[in-house]
Amino acid sequence: MTTQLEANTPTAVLDRVSLVLDAFDGPGRLTLAQIVRRTGLPRSSAHRMLERLVQLRWLRREGRDYELGMRLVELGSLAVHQDRLHRAALPFLHELHRVTGHVVHLAILDGPDVVYLEKIGGRMAAAIPTRVGGRYPAHCTAVGKAILGFSGEDQLTDFDADLLGRKTKYSISTGAQLRTELAKVRAHGIAFEREESLPGFGCVAAPIGNIGEAVAAVSICGPIAQMKLDHRLAAPVRMTALGIWRNVEGGPVRVQPTLQQQPRPLTGGPARPRPIAAAPLQDLQYA
User: Using an 8 Å Cβ cutoff, are 261 and 273 in contact?
Assistant: First the structure.
């Protein structure tokens, strides 16, 4: 049985603080009763901890409801902007958005989920319910499939189940389906998503890093009716991923994403696309 002294050790206190903060993993405010249910902490202990976290600005209280405070927002923003990958990627992400006109994401893998490090999208961004720091099941997203396709076998243990959770009727629903899709990603170096995470939207993603050790992925997303999910969008996404990886590894490089020449302009894309050599991507319109 845990003694009072053990419960007050630094490790125990940090564990309980972590429990409380993890309870806010999602939108909306929480009441004391909801936090007690989610953490399993005694009501009195939870209340004392919540009030102290409010004083420290880690949480904010509105009446009887609690939400994440500005201090966490400040620290989270600093963590993202101090991240080497994020710093290396940011100029390339802005350029990819400028060239394609679509919403751009930078994401990493954390267990069975992807976590978004950046989102750039202008007016269209509000239509896609992703956010910096937010999570999404990796097998339902183009960025997730791109990372998994270029990761080691150990990263796939979270997806060995016969049935996987679905976000839409088009989501991959079995481990076997996922492995088939990842084989295509490894073969072509690109991942497509067709309404698998959000109805009406599609994405194209490329892994950042060498095969077998991808560290992240970059994607463009938009209304599926306005996107040609083939080599014309795959090329600038792959070039962006390559530029980011070279920037992470060895400093600035001059790799710019450009749209491939095509018979007619992409809907929602730039008025005057520039050509790019991408011969290996010509046959990329797979199901």
Answer: yes
